[in-house]
Input
Amino acid sequence: MKKIIVACSLLFVNYTTQAQIDAKAKKILDDVSAKTKTYTTINAEFSITIENKKNKTTDAQNGKLTLKGSKYKLEVNNQTIISDSKTSWTILKDASEVQINTIDAKENETGLNPSNIFTMHERGFKYEFVKDETQKNGTVNQIVKLYPDDVKKKNYHTAILTINKQKSQIVSIKIMGKDGTDMTYLVKSFTTNGNVPESSFVFNDKNYPGYEVIDLR
Output
């Protein structure tokens, strides 16, 4: 009887492990990663929709993102964040203020941030293929759900990726927060391999005369 129980337990563990490995989702995500890593630079324009289910409010913003390896420049409304992968400069235009911070290397690699927004699925997630959706223009989008391995350390429980099948390119990312706030990033334009100078990722105080610089390092 004991042997039967042990055998059943092993079978259950094996089934659970296999259930966490969705082969179709993995193939889709691997293709996205492979394609993204061929780009030397990425310039993207996007919209952010923030939906608070508790308060029943919705806010929409537009932004621009420039990526070059692990370096980035993010512009959203009156705020700009520049990062050379080691240091970040947050420019608050309304307050005429610049905040300087050191970037934690581990968090930069594994956390959700602008430098890895298009490859966030590579580590720290289980994933599940949901469905294919054919658009009116014939484009096929693939829906994949991501679940953080260590959900206790995240402020969200699920991320939903919409991926253009033909291009292996992310169309949108929906982050579902534990507090009932959902954030949806919709890519409106996506251009690659442009000429982006290194100076784009370093703060130049000459461009912001009169700004107060606060060093938080």
Q: What stands out?
A: The CA atoms of residues 71 and 215 lie 20 Å apart. Residues 2-20 form the longest helix (19 residues). Residues 1-19 have pLDDT under 50 and may be disordered.
